[in-house]
DNA sequence: AGGTTTTGTATCGTGTGCGATTTAATCTTA
DNA sequence: TAAGATTAAATCGCACACGATACAAAACCT
């Protein structure tokens, strides 16, 4: 416990660096489609459930309106999605995929899948990490 | 292997989210000192080895000049560090800690250490994660 | 119903993060 | 040694990411 600072430095940094490497990998895979990594995460969320409000999307992705609003605007102007003010509650914005996003789903996911597979991550490794990162994330989040 | 896309989504997102939670935790711990999380990482690197060039620092932190140059400028104007052009090679910039950074080292690391300890991360968990993240990072980095 | 509070978005300012370009200094090599 | 290549920083443009603030619509409340 006495070298916790050194250790801590390494864990926070390990997560920080790994996230950076993922961003670079996905950026290169997505670049041909004119998508950024965070935009791809938005598409992933919408491919699972379309027509959600900005708030729901933000909760799903852990992003606030300060990040999402301009991002949604960019993606709308690039033809990926469409904003529509809710009829029943004028405060809400519903977000819908456009045809382009539905049509490109397979090529995009195919390309990403191929790219990820070149990393040769073992299934066991994958599952362990998912579990441990989940535990870690909950602990870190719970403390704030 | 057939649900790799779904799994993949979850791993990249798990790393992405965890990094975000760390950022929030550190941001709140460092805010009293007027430091951001990336700036704290710069200090950590310099506390270990002072007087390095911008390039060395960038390699240590995995950051390019487009990120580091303005960050160093901000930290210099906030009194944390000092830039000095190398005498022997005028292209290089050496970066030195200022007194403030040396004096505040203990209070800062103390506060961070306390904050991290509230997460109650087990040593075993910690070491496993460090190892697995290292492996993952190398695999992801190696593929680009 | 009308005032208050809450809620959902939008906007703003600051700080990363990155690829591409630029500039100046150093190194290479013919 | 002078032209060309390489290297180290700086600069630029774009896209997150976040906290704070603003604002309008809806809900709440006697």
From TrEMBL, chains A, B:
Q: Per the database record, which ranges form the HTH marR-type domain?
A: 8-138
**Protein name, UniProt field:** HTH-type transcriptional regulator SarZ
**SMART domains this protein is in?**
HTH_MARR
Molecular-function GO term, any one: DNA-binding transcription factor activity
Q: Which UniProt keywords apply?
A: DNA-binding, Transcription, Transcription regulation
Task: Name the source organism.
Answer: Cytobacillus oceanisediminis
Instruction: Name where it mostly resides.
Output: cytoplasm
Report the family membership: Belongs to the SarZ family.
